[in-house]
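hey so i finally got around to running the thing on that chain from the lab meeting. sorry it took forever, my laptop kept dying and i had to restart like 3 times. anyway pasting the input first so we r on the same page abt which one it is
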Amino acid sequence: MESYSEKVSGIMFAVLILGVLFNPLFAFADGDVPSNTYLQAISFYKTKNYESALPLFELEIKNNPGNARAYYYLGCCQYRNKDFKNSTLNFYLFNQKSSNSLIKDYADKLMATLSGDDQKWVLLTLNGPVPELSPSQDSKPINSQAGNSNNGNNVNSAKSNIDVSLVLSKNWWLRGYSGYDYSLLGDVINSITSFPKYFNSFDIPGYTITSNTGNSGIQAGIELGFLLDKNNGFSINAENVWSQSDSYTEIYSGTTNTTVSVTPNLASISLNYYRYLFQQKGSRTYIAAGIGYYQTSINYYDYDINGNLNPTTATFTGNTIGGTLGVGQMIGIGNSFGIEVSVHGRIATIAQVSSSSLNQGGTTLSGPFTLGVANEAGIPPTILIIPPGYSGSDVRNLVVDYSGFDANLSFDFYF
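ok and heres what got predicted. didnt touch it at all, straight out
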C-alpha cells in the first residue's frame, strides 16, 4: 500500500504542475472574457514574479469573486512566499467554487502542517465571510491533522516531502562535486613504460628498470547554474583533475641510478547545457553537454646519480578546447538542498606542452623547452626534453590526451 509520505509527495508534485496543465486564458466559460487584471497577474505568474502577481490576483478576486482560478493562483503565490495559512485557505476556496479532489486532498495535507490556531482560522473563515487576507505567520507542524490526533509522524513526513518538491521549482543552483577520474594520457604513460620494457629486454646483469603508471585520478569542482524552465538549464563550472604520478626508476646492483617522474594535472572552465528528461517525486534525471577551455600542467622530475646537475625540474603547460557529455540524477533532500550522482565523458587533447625555463641543480635555464618523445626507428618513444630551437626529426612533441571519464558525487544548494 502506498505510504502517507509517498502519497503527499505525489499530490505535491501534481499540484505544482497544475499551473502548466491549466491554460489560464481558456479558464472561462464561453462568452466570458478574462479581465485585464487577471491577464496581467497571469503574465507575472508565468515569469515567476510572484510578488507582483499576488496583489493583482487579490484585486481580481475582489472584483470578480466567481473566478475560481484566481483563488488557485493566489494560493500558489502565497505558497511560494511561505504564507501557508492563506495558501491553504485559497486552495479550499478554489475547491468550493470548482470542485477538484486533487486540490482538496492537497489542501488537507497542507492544513496538517499548520499550527492549531491557524487551522482554526482557516476553518472559521471557510464557514463564514471571507475576511481580509491575513499577514503571513510562522507556522509550526502539530501532531494532528484537522480532525485527527494520531498522525504526528505523518504530518512531519508530509512537510518533508513538500520541502523536497520545492527544490525542483528553484531557478539557481550552486554545486560542489568530487569523484573518480580516468584519463587516457596517451604519450605520458607510453613514454614512461616504453623505455623500461626496451632496456629490460637486453637482460643486462645487475640492471633493472621498473615503471609505475596509471590512469586514475581525483576530480573536484564547483558549478553555478540557472534553470531556464523545467526542462532546460545552463551552468558554468570550474574544476581540476589531479592524476597520479607516472615514473620509472633505473636500479644497478641495488642502487638507484636514475629516476624520472611526471605528474599531470588538468584545470578547466566549461559552459554546460542541461536537458531534464524525467522529473519524479523530489528528483530529476538529466543529460548534459559542455564545451570548455582546458589547461594541463605537468611537473617533471629527473634525477641521474651520474649527472653533474641534479635534479632537473620543470613545469610544462599546454591548453586546448574540449567538450563533455554526461548523464546524472539529482535527489532533493530538503527545501534548498540536494545530492547528485553523475557520469561524464570528456574529450580534451593537448598537442604540445612547454616551459619557459627549467632548473638543473639550482641553476635556472631559459627556454622555451618542450616536453617530447623519441621518434627514431628502433628507439622506444622515451620521454625527453626538447631544447630551444631544436627541430630534428628524431623527436616529436609529447601529446597529452586527457580524454576520459569521471564519476562524481555532488552536494547542491538551490536558491
